């Protein structure tokens, strides 16, 4: 029997093919640093998920209205995912102190969810945090956001005891040690 047929019968080829198809979109995704031209997409992408599941809160308004002063001027970063020429995702890295940062405002357009865009954003953010000297990155979320929580677990976040949050919707806290 031909080796390719043996691999196919054993599932090796099929597994590799599935992985190739799954990872293919990652090659087409560009992660970009903040640019004022993308400010409106940062706000729009985040308001879409917040308004779908929760109420917009005061800290949301501050961060989304002026990411330059709320996030970047305080030592944080904002990233964007461009896929097929469009900004389709975003996330922010907020500096708490020299060793602790927060992953916040993660959003991916519903029409491209499932294409590994959130994963690529998250991995990029964690690498940026490492380069900035972070020892830990945490996030606050909600149990209603099951796909997001699953993504965070897949990249290495684990659940920790919640602490007081400025967000009423936050009922889950996760962190990753870098």
From TrEMBL:
<protein>
    <submittedName>
        <fullName>Acetyltransferase (GNAT) family protein</fullName>
    </submittedName>
</protein>
<keyword id="KW-0808">Transferase</keyword>
<dbReference type="InterPro" id="IPR000182">
    <property type="entry name" value="GNAT_dom"/>
</dbReference>
<dbReference type="Pfam" id="PF00583">
    <property type="entry name" value="Acetyltransf_1"/>
</dbReference>
<dbReference type="GO" id="GO:0008080">
    <property type="term" value="F:N-acetyltransferase activity"/>
</dbReference>
<feature type="domain" description="N-acetyltransferase">
    <location>
        <begin position="29"/>
        <end position="178"/>
    </location>
</feature>
<dbReference type="InterPro" id="IPR016181">
    <property type="entry name" value="Acyl_CoA_acyltransferase"/>
</dbReference>
<dbReference type="InterPro" id="IPR050769">
    <property type="entry name" value="NAT_camello-type"/>
</dbReference>
């Amino acid at each position: 029997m031909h080796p390719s047929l043996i691999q196919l019968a054993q599932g090796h080829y099929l597994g590799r093919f599935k992985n190739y198809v799954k990872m293919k979109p990652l090659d087409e995704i560009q992660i970009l640093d903040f640019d004022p031209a993308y400010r409106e997409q940062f706000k729009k992408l985040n308001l879409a998920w917040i308004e779908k599941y929760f109420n917009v809160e005061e800290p949301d308004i501050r961060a989304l209205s002026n990411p330059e002063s709320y996030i970047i001027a305080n030592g944080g970063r904002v990233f964007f995912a461009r896929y097929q020429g469009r900004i389709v995702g975003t996330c922010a890295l907020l500096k708490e102190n020299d060793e602790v940062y927060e992953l916040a405002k993660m959003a991916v357009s519903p029409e491209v969810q499932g294409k590994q865009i959130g994963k690529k954003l998250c991995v990029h953010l964690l690498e940026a945090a490492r380069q900035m000297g972070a020892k830990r990155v945490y996030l606050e979320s909600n149990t209603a956001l099951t796909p997001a929580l699953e993504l965070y677990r897949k990249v290495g976040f684990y659940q920790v005891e919640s602490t007081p949050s400025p967000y009423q919707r936050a009922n889950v806290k996760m962190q990753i040690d870098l």
